[in-house]
Amino acid sequence: MPKFKLFANKKGAADQKRNNQYVKFARQIYVEAKKGGPDPNANLKLKAIIANARAINMPLDNIERAIKKATDTGNADDYEEIRYEGYGPGGVAVIVECLSDNRNRTAADVRAIFNKRGGNLGETGSVSFMFDKKGVIVIDREKFSVDEDTILMQALEAGAEDVIINDDSFEVHTHPHELDQVKSRLEAEGYTFENASVQWIPQNTVKISGDDAAKMLKMMEAFEENDDVQNVYANFEIDDEEMEKLMA
Q1: Protein fold of 3-71
Q2: What's the Rg (C-alpha) of the chain?
Q3: Class of domain 80-129+204-247 (CATH, top level)
Q4: 132: β partners
Q5: Which of 46, 49, 122, 129 is paired with 193 by a 20 to 30 Å CA distance?
Q6: How far apart (Å, rounded) are the C-alpha atoms in residues 83 and 101?
Q7: What is the pTM of this model?
Q8: Mean pLDDT for each 10-residue chunk of the chain (248 residues)?
């Protein structure tokens, strides 16, 4: 295949993924603006969602449209938050968070994604006990010339529980109810964030490879492509060598 065709395919896939993210953020913004009011300064949860959307370069027009839609008294769209839990191939635990205006459709879609990729949908609570709910603040290391000891000290003083050091980022973990407080204090120190949200963090990971790994990645991709699915969390681990084989 010519190189330009490969590039076009990759660009098309990247564009589609970004558009999917915009759709999900627009839905979150709509729901939160309708629930807590359209003014981000008076609605901190809305403000945080907008900040996360802007971090992936979501256009302001899209954000403003979602807020305007929420304030339109003639708009009857109503979404509910639903959490699904189940298992992927290799015994991987999976949590799927959705915003849906049709519970039956969403349940059928989620079940089909589990079944088609060698998994199964479980009952609520069947896997969430294997995760901890945490506030997670992601700081891009390239944007700030700060050493590990300094960011750890600043985060702990701001009220964080821990800092995970990655090659390209600092992950500040907080109690879910302390997320806004820690975020505000780190902002006062001059930091900006790639993302700040409440997430499900696995207590332990399951190492998978071969067919299980290939199916699990396809399952994650299918969930991410579904408009009703806002977030998906799983406790699998794939080593670098195996990932290279899968991506070849």
Answers
A1: Arc Repressor Mutant, subunit A (1.10.10)
A2: 19
A3: alpha beta
A4: 201
A5: 129
A6: 14
A7: 0.86
A8: 44 69 93 93 92 92 94 81 96 96 96 96 95 96 91 96 93 95 94 93 95 95 94 94 84
